[in-house]
């Protein structure tokens, strides 16, 4: 099953994969040094190095799988939007408080609530997908359902460097 991802999210995963693969020689050296300390059954350095190696390899496999399953969607190519879709930004109004906020719907890898980036898999993201301007999205939350009106749908996407 393909998983949507923006170019920014895809590039961030590729950079993390490169970083993790670059750690392999360092981890291998740490294992060899620890091996030289003698009895492996009571060698904490060896155990720690082997554990770090296993965790790093597991992360590498996970990222490689996520990249292989990625369907890269560039929000800048979405055109004029009439419905909320992956990569769109949306201005919503909380029908209880009247507060408005702008959210952008991306993948879990890019979620950043401070920036207003939410996952399409989060309850609010799922509730917004497919809605049109004027529709009300009902979001089930532990403290009770919240309702948000769709005020505006647009594309607001920028590349982020240095992250």
- Given the structure, what is the number of helices? 3
* Rg (CA only): 22 Å
How are strands sequenced across the largest beta sheet?
A: 5-4-3-7-6
Q: Give the tally of structural domains.
A: 2
The biggest sheet, with number of strands, parallel, antiparallel or mixed sense and barrel status, is: 5 strands, mixed
| N-C termini distance | 28 Å
Strand coverage percent: 15-25%
The coarse silhouette is elongated
> Mind telling me which CATH architecture of the largest domain this is?
Roll
CATH topology of the largest domain: Chitinase A, domain 3
The overall average pLDDT, rounded, is 91
- Uncertain stretches of 5 or more adjacent residues: none
Number of strands: 7
Find the structural class using helix and strand composition.
alpha/beta
Helix content: 25-40%
- The ordered string of helix (H) and strand (E) elements is EHHEEEEHEE
Q: CATH superfamily assignment of the largest domain? A: Transcription elongation factor, GreA/GreB, C-terminal domain
